[in-house]
From TrEMBL:
UniProt-annotated catalytic positions: 389 (proton donor/acceptor)
Source organism of the structure: Rotaria socialis
Upper taxonomic lineage: Eukaryota, Metazoa, Spiralia, Gnathifera, Rotifera
Gene Ontology MF: a single term: zinc ion binding
UniProt cofactor(s): Zn(2+)
Acyltransferase among keywords: no
Domain Peptidase M14: 111-440
A Pfam family matched in the record: Peptidase_M14
UniProt protein name: Peptidase M14 domain-containing protein
Length: 446
C-alpha cells in the first residue's frame, strides 16, 4: 500500500504543470536559450518589448528554471499552481444542452461541443431539409484513437464556366482545433458554418462567394487531443499518438503526442519553435507527415482524396492573441512571392472589419519562427494562406493582474475563453473571411 501511495504521488508530481509569468530585465530574446536548456517548457504568450513571458512549466523543472531566472536577474509569479485545477472550470463551459432539430440553432455554436456532439451535428446538417441541399460531408481520415476527421462542404450551383470537362471549381479550406486546448477556434469554425448556410441566399457577398468557391470546413482537426483536454488536461496541445518515449516511459503523460502544426511536409523541423523531444509540447514528430491528422489534410488539399476542386485560399484558426499571420513562419529572411498583395489585402480587412485590433504581418516576425506549419505548406499549393489567432488580445501580461494586484481570482490565461466569446469572435472572423474572399473575386474573377 505504501509503495502504491509513493507511486501515485510520484505520478502526480511528474504530470503536474504550472503556469508562470516570467519577466527579464533586458529586451533580449530569451526564447532560444530557454528552448535549448529547457526543451519541455511550453511558451504560451509573450511580450518581447516588455521582456515578459507566460510559460507552462513541468513541476520537475521548477527548481532549475527558478535558478535560471535569478541568474538572468529576472522574476516570476505562479499564475496557475496546478493545471489539473482548470478542468473544473472547463467542464462547466462545455455542459451538454438539449439538442435542437434545427441544425442552424444557436445551441450548436454557443457552447463547446464534444466530439460526439460535433459528429451528431454534422449528420444533422447533412440530413435536415433545412440544409441538406447545401451540404456534403467528407470523412477524410481517422485519428490514432479512431475518431473521424469530418469536413463539411458548403456549396451552391457551380458557375457556368465550371461545367464538367472544362475545369475544376475553386475552393476554400478552413480548419480549427489543430491545437487541442484552443477550444475557441472550434466554436468559431462552427459559427462560420452556420452563417454561411444562413446567408447563402440572402447576403449578396456570401452569394457571390459561394458562386465562385465551395467552402470546406474542418472544425475539429485534433479530436483526440481535444477530448483529452476536456477530460484530463485542459492545456493539452498535441494529438494523442504514442511516441518512441511514451512506449517505455508512460509514467509521464506529456511524452505522448505530436504537435500537428509542426508536422507538415514543408521546411519540417529546420528552426527553433519545433522540438525534436517527444515530451515537448511542440514535438514535431520523427518525420514529416507522421500523423494521421496531417496526412489526411495534406492528401485532401493535394486532391488525392477528392478531385473536383482546386484549393485557392486557406484560413487556419487558432487562439489566442488577435494576430493575422502570413507565411512564411519558418524564416524571417524570405517572403512568399505574393506577400505584398497578401499584406495589403489582409491589412485592409483588418482595419475595416476588425477595427484595427488584429496585428497583421509575417508570422515569423510578428510572433516567432517555427517550421512544419500548415500555412507554410498551404502556401506551396495555393495563393492565399493565413492563420487567424483569435481572442483575447495580448495586452499586458498576464491577463489576471494589474500591477501586483490580482484582478480576478478565477482568471488564468487566454485559452480559457468562455463559450460567450464564440459568437463575439465568430461575427468578426466570419465577416473578415467574407470580405477577404470577396476582394479576391472582385480582383481576379469578375
Amino acid at each position: 500500500m505504501k509503495l502504491l501511495l509513493v507511486f501515485v504521488l510520484l505520478l502526480n508530481y511528474l504530470q503536474a504543470e504550472q503556469v508562470w509569468l516570467v519577466k527579464f530585465p533586458y529586451k533580449h530574446n530569451y526564447l532560444s536559450r530557454i528552448e535549448k536548456i529547457f526543451p519541455l517548457i511550453d511558451l504560451i504568450e509573450y511580450d518581447y518589448y516588455q521582456s515578459s513571458y507566460i510559460f507552462l512549466i513541468p513541476r520537475n523543472y521548477a527548481s532549475n528554471f527558478t535558478h535560471f531566472i535569478h541568474q538572468s536577474k529576472g522574476s516570476y509569479r505562479i499564475i496557475v499552481d496546478n493545471t489539473k485545477d482548470l478542468l473544473k472550470k472547463s467542464r462547466q463551459q462545455s455542459k451538454r444542452s438539449i439538442a435542437s432539430d434545427n441544425p442552424l440553432d444557436k445551441t450548436y455554436y454557443q457552447r463547446f461541443l464534444s466530439y460526439d456532439e460535433q459528429q451528431d451535428w454534422s449528420r444533422l446538417l447533412s440530413n435536415s431539409s433545412l440544409t441538406n441541399k447545401s451540404i456534403r460531408l467528407h470523412t477524410i481520415g481517422q485519428t490514432y484513437e479512431n475518431r473521424s476527421l469530418t469536413v463539411i462542404e458548403i456549396h451552391s450551383k457551380s458557375h457556368p464556366r465550371y461545367r464538367k470537362g472544362r475545369r475544376r471549381k475553386n475552393a476554400v479550406f478552413i480548419d480549427g482545433g489543430m491545437h487541442a486546448r484552443e477550444w475557441l477556434s472550434i466554436g468559431v469554425a462552427n459559427y462560420v458554418i452556420v452563417q454561411f448556410l444562413k446567408l447563402k441566399g440572402k447576403d449578396p457577398k456570401v452569394k457571390k462567394i459561394l458562386h465562385y468557391f465551395d467552402v470546406f470546413i474542418l472544425s475539429m482537426m485534433n479530436p483526440d487531443g481535444y477530448e483529452y483536454s476536456r477530460n484530463e488536461n485542459r492545456l493539452w496541445r498535441k494529438n494523442r499518438a504514442p511516441t518512441i518515449v511514451s512506449d517505455y516511459w508512460s509514467i509521464d503523460a506529456s511524452c505522448f503526442g505530436v504537435d500537428l502544426n509542426r508536422n507538415f511536409p514543408f521546411q519540417w523541423n529546420n528552426t527553433f519553435g519545433a522540438s525534436p523531444f517527444p515530451c515537448s509540447h511542440s514535438f514535431s514528430g520523427l518525420k514529416p507527415l507522421s500523423e494521421n491528422e496531417v496526412q489526411s489534410v495534406v492528401n485532401f488539399l493535394r486532391n488525392k482524396t477528392y478531385t473536383r476542386h482546386q484549393f485557392y485560399a486557406y484560413f487556419n484558426l487558432h487562439a489566442y492573441g488577435r494576430f493575422w499571420l502570413l507565411p512564411w513562419t519558418y524564416t524571417t529572411l524570405e517572403r512568399v512571392k505574393n506577400y505584398d498583395d497578401l499584406l495589403k489585402r489582409s491589412n485592409n480587412v483588418a482595419s475595416t472589419v476588425l477595427n484595427g485590433t488584429y496585428k497583421v504581418g509575417q508570422a515569423s516576425s510578428v510572433l516567432y519562427s517555427c517550421s512544419g506549419t500548415s500555412i507554410d505548406f498551404a502556401a506551396t499549393l495555393m495563393p492565399h494562406a493565413m492563420t487567424l489567432e483569435l481572442s483575447p488580445m495580448y495586452r499586458g501580461l498576464p491577463l489576471c493582474y494589474d500591477g501586483n494586484l490580482r484582478k480576478d481570482q478565477n482568471c488564468t490565461i487566454g485559452f480559457m475563453s468562455g463559450p460567450e466569446e464564440i459568437e463575439i469572435d465568430g461575427i468578426e472572423v466570419f465577416n473578415a473571411i467574407v470580405e477577404y474572399l470577396y476582394s479576391i473575386i472582385q480582383d481576379n474573377f469578375v
